[in-house]
Amino acid sequence: MRIVFFITVFVLLSYSKISLALPQHNPVPGGIALIPISAQNEKPDVFYNKKRVAIISEENKSYALIGVSLNAKPGKHKIELRWPNGRKDTQDFMVTAKSYTEQHLTIKNKRKVNPYKQDMDRILKEKARKNQARKLWSNESVKYDFITPVEGRVSSIFGLRRFFNEQPRRPHSGLDIAAPEGTPIKAVESGTVIESGDFFFSGNMVYIDHGQGLISMYAHMHQIDVKTGDKINKGQIIGTVGETGRVTGPHLHLGIIANQTLVDPVFFLPGKNP
User: Fold this and answer.
1) Contact 191/209 with Cβ under 8 angstroms?
2) Which residues contact 18 (CB under 8 A, 6 or more apart)?
3) pLDDT at residue 2 above 70?
4) Mean pLDDT calculated for residue range 32-38
5) Extended strands (E) in the chain
6) Which DSSP category does 242 fall into?
7) Whole-angstrom Cα distance, residue 101 to residue 87?
8) Would you state the pLDDT for residue 162?
């Protein structure tokens, strides 16, 4: 099934609020689950599939923020709570089914679809760097009140089963926003740059840590204006839109990682309907 999207993204110019906006609770494959936890005097460490998850607080309530994998099976899932006194509890939540459609794309640079043998060493090294960034954990308070990073048209949504030159590839792991080359890209929230550089498939790319395993990723950039270790403010320009790596045109690929899991960015962005 070939599909075309004509969804327009409008940037919210002002994002100051009295309180933070919680991400959308949508426990589907590729979604997020917000599980209330009792944490008045002390907070537990929370784990899902043996991976530690973030804890966020809003209006004196605490929630485990759980990224649900695209491969997750519908049904009952479980988190483990490990308290400072050594007590361990479990809590169940349900994952509901969600289907994703197909997207067929034509890539002019065939090397980006079927890399040459000499490309593989680079690709494997870059994969290790991506995995290291994805697994980073910091104990800082989570910053989750995201803004839209760039103004433009959504050209590809999360979770599409992709075919490049009619060859099946992994599902789309982010949100693509088409915009002219050189369009400024804003950081969705404050944080620290934990990885940046030129990657074979992703082109110029930046990872920003927002605390406790919540990470934003920006790919196919034309220009990178930050470097690893930089402290970033919410809304700060980190670079510009480009068409580097495996692309069909200039756009920003926005990825969001929670507990080492790529999830649909729309659940974090203001005014977006998944």
Assistant:
1) yes
2) none
3) no
4) 92
5) 7-9, 32-37, 45-48, 51-58, 61-67, 75-82, 88-95, 102-105, 152-156, 161-164, 167-168, 175-178, 184-186, 191-199, 203-209, 215-224, 231-232, 237-241, 251-258, 261-263
6) B
7) 43
8) 63
What domains can be seen in the chain, in order of their start residue? 7-14+99-267 (2.70.70.10), 32-95 (2.60.40.1590)
- Token digits of residue 111: 């090397």
Burial tier of 223 (Cβ tally within 10 Å: 0-12, 13-18, 19+):
middle
Confidence of residue 38 (pLDDT cuts 50, 70, 90): confident
Long-range pairs of 110-117 with CB within 8 A, sequence gap ≥ 24 = 110/165, 112/200, 112/201, 112/245, 112/246, 113/164, 113/165, 113/167, 113/246, 114/167, 115/200
pLDDT in tens, 125-154: 999 999 999 999 999 999 999 999 998 999
Name, in order, each residue with C-beta under 8 angstroms of 237's C-beta and a sequence gap of 6 or more: 184, 185, 186, 225
In DSSP terms, 66 is beta-bridged to 33
Measured between its terminal Cα atoms, the distance across the chain in Å is: 20
Answer whether 256's CB lies under 8 Å from 215's CB: yes
Report the candidate in 172, 171, 160, 255 with the shortest Cα–Cα distance to residue 214. Answer: 255
